[in-house]
Design brief:
Elements lengths: L3 H8 L3 H10 L17 H15 L4 H10 L5 H38 L7 H8 L2
Helix pairs in contact: 1-3
Length: 130
Amino acid sequence: MLTIGQVAKAAGVNVETVRYYQRRGLLREPEKPLNGQRRYAAEDVSRLRFIRRAQVLGFTLEEIENLLSLEGANCCGSTHELAVHKLKLIDGKIADLKNMRKALAGLAQQCESGNLLGNCPIIQSLIQGG
């Protein structure tokens, strides 16, 4: 059995993260014995690692809660739907980032050309909103 500090360290998170996940209902909070510390099991470390890996893949805590509710069930179809939805969101963000990069690169190019007839093109673009 592990203390909260040991669980946090083993999962690569801090103690406050463990407490936050408990408040959110993502992780159980063990009973506190009289004059003692709460003790956590190895399963709690595994659950914390699951949460962290899901976050790295871009899942929100609400989505992770949904994934955790599907854990252990014959739910590959539901999990697949969540993954496909997340992929679509990521693809949209990538497209947005590419557009942002293209626009910013164009503005930076204008600055680098040295043919400035007035104010900075980046500042002007931000003022004009486009």
